[in-house]
Fold each of these.
Amino acid sequence: MEQPSADSGAVGWIYRNRPARFVVSCVCRKTLLRLVGRYADSRLSRIHIRRFAEKRGIADWQGYGSLNAFFARPRANVAFPAREDTLGSPCQALVCAWDQLRPDAVVQVKGVTYPLAELLDEDASRFEGGAAYCLRLESGHHHRVYCFDDGVLEEENSVPGRYDSVHAAALPHVPGLYAKNHRVITRYRTEQFGTAMLVEVGAMFIGSVVRQAPLGEPVRRGDVKGWFCFGGSSVLLFFEPGRVRPDADLLAQTAAGIETAVDVGEKIGEKITR
């Protein structure tokens, strides 16, 4: 799926227009986001579910008590690859992938980079030469995030920040957007892929990143890690060198500036065997 032009659509217009960006920055302040979140949790918000679902071709929309309950709904048909050395996507998303990672210049979108240390809020030198993925969830996607391997979620760090849109049209206009937005960073020790960093980035109208899986206890591949509340969002994955080889087609599509649609559990890479 090709990325929308940075100069097309309402989001592109907002992020090219300084007054409009100022209004959005005011709207997306934490206090207002909290009010939006409370409304999305209320029974009153149910009136929006049918229109939201029908516009995006989602058949399963009935019986939810609130917009957030619908947005973070469970899904029964989640399946990860049978081979343990295969990396499945932790979420339904539009994905880009990179190998030979440069921590001083992580690609946000073509021509726009940011230092990985700013995103992780710690030294990132151990990821030099490793693999990285950006999984961008749009509003119609299934917004649960799953554990992609057996292991332990060792540590979690919630970093406060902004709530800019992560739409493709916004990325060229906000350098270091992922490192500026609110994000939850999880150190994930896996059995097959070493110790990875999983970063859940909040976006416009995303006030909450919810974790269900326990910290410091074993998790299994396919367990629900957590979910995002209403809005768009992104999941970023970083692997140390010699651990993961991204699929060649994803690397080629990314190099061409194209995002690839993937479902939960769909193959996006494999373990590097020595």
Amino acid sequence: MMNLLRNITLIIFFLFNLILSAQTKSSIKQIAQIEKEAEFISTDRLGNLYIAKENFLWMYNKNGDSLYAFNSKRYGEISSIDCSDPYKILVFFRNYGIIHFLDNYLSENGDPIDLQELGFDQITQACLSRENGFWVFDQMRQRVYHLNDNFKVTHESVNFMQWFGKRLNPSFMIEYNNQLFVNVPEEGILVFDHFGTYIKTIPLKNLKEPQVLDGNINFVADNQFCQYQRQEMERVCSPIDFNKLTQARIEKGRLYTFDGKKCTIFKTNEMHLAI
């Protein structure tokens, strides 16, 4: 009797996932595919897509039309970008300790910022701040620092070793709604307030480049687009299996997927992918 009930439960679960998968597939429609081998992608709140490879950065609109390009051979490979403000894009060159700001045409906006001249020799992450200025993570000092537009430190965190008892190596950092999210693959996502005070750790480990959107965390796991809903503290994933998926982002009714060699843009019926 128990085996019969278990088999019935498995059949119901299987049928439910088939129906859910069919509904999800019908809610998205591919509108563009950009064949370009690259390191990573990002998006801004206007729906523009950015693709980065070595010292090149390309920009496309939400329909996949090519717009602008940026090339900086002087500072080597682009380590990360923050385009949360599409009119002030932060480009970080880790090997040279350089931050470059670009405008919405990917033209240089001001002089490059040499972090070593500011007394920071081992900056490994950088991102924009809504309070003007930007955040950096100092690998040697194991702290995050907020610098204002005059490049003066206004806030800083405690030493990470005091909290975790070991040195951490964040792979991604972004500010959203006056909170700083620092992704540490082996620990999770560390959350700080706008003063640099540690709040908590979101238990999502081994993430590459998550997206913080509307208070939730979007990320890729096992070739699926997943979302951690912070209010419910629940992780849900789309039943669609994207082949060799490394990144996925949602912006302005678009789903952007990236597998290292191409970026595909889907139009969604809702602001968020049904998952």
